Amino acid sequence: MSRVTAHLGILAGLQSEARCLSGLGHAIALSGARLDGAHRAAESLIAGGATHLLSFGLAGGLDPALAPGTLLLPAHLLTGDGQSRAVDGAWHARACTRLAPLRPIDQALFGTDEAIATVAAKTALFARTGAVAVDMESHVLAQAAAHLPLLIVRVVADGAETALPPAALVGIRPDGSSDLPAVLRSILRHPSQIPALLRLGRAAARAEATLRQAVRLGGRSGFALEP
Asked: 3-state SS of the chain: helix, strand, coil percent to 5?
């Protein structure tokens, strides 16, 4: 019997995240950091014949011990309905070995339908679930294809003690690109957010640098997709 060729489908939120993977030939779909967009993107990957699924991109930190730029390779995904989904064990082990120079954290990630924007909300979620970080795509991907192997590669962008300023919540278009006019309108309404927005931008740049390092180490192989 011939071996079935693995076909990797990757779900990310932003065009900036997808650019880290450019030129590798993997199928990529973007959510635009929206729940409906995540569902459509996950469905498109499955319809396109993906045999293995990867959630890739930035995450919000919940554990105060994790600084922006920390690589996450969670072994489990937790959801709001109290469910826990393990990623593919063998793939995860190979990815941890491949990305070992970046010292990945393998503790649980939480999947949420909406942004966790305040420090108080992050603190409460960490206390309730024990998850070290949160994102808005991984749980959608896991639910859409529970029968397919799943891996999660994420990097902390906003730390647990960082609140998301208003401009950060309106500054993404449905196609995952930056909506600069929306950001500028938000800044004009709330100019006091500028320092926080600049800090967040620096943290996001650090996180994307880690994403690019991870891709250099393992992206071409699908993060050690196959032995």
From this structure: 40, 20, 40
Q: Are 159 and 67 in contact (CB under 8 A)?
A: yes
Q: Which residues pair with 78 in a beta bridge?
A: 84, 110
All structural domains of the chain with their residue ranges = 8-218
Give the count of beta carbons closer than 10 Å to the beta carbon of residue 122: 25
* Three-class DSSP category at 141: helix
**8-218 has which fold?**
Rossmann fold (3.40.50)
> Which pLDDT band holds residue 81 (cuts at 50, 70, 90)?
confident
How far is Cα 181 from Cα 201, in angstroms, rounded to an integer? 17
- What DSSP assignment string belongs to 109-132? EEE-SS---SHHHHHHHHHHH--S
Rounded Cα distance between 155 and 208, Å, is: 8
Per-position DSSP letters for 22-35, written without gaps between them? TTS--EEEE-TT-H
Return d(Cα 60, Cα 169) in angstroms, integer: 13
pLDDT confidence tier of residue 80, bands split at 50, 70 and 90? confident
Residue 37: its H or E element:
helix 35-47
How many Å apart are CA 152 and CA 95, to the nearest integer?
10
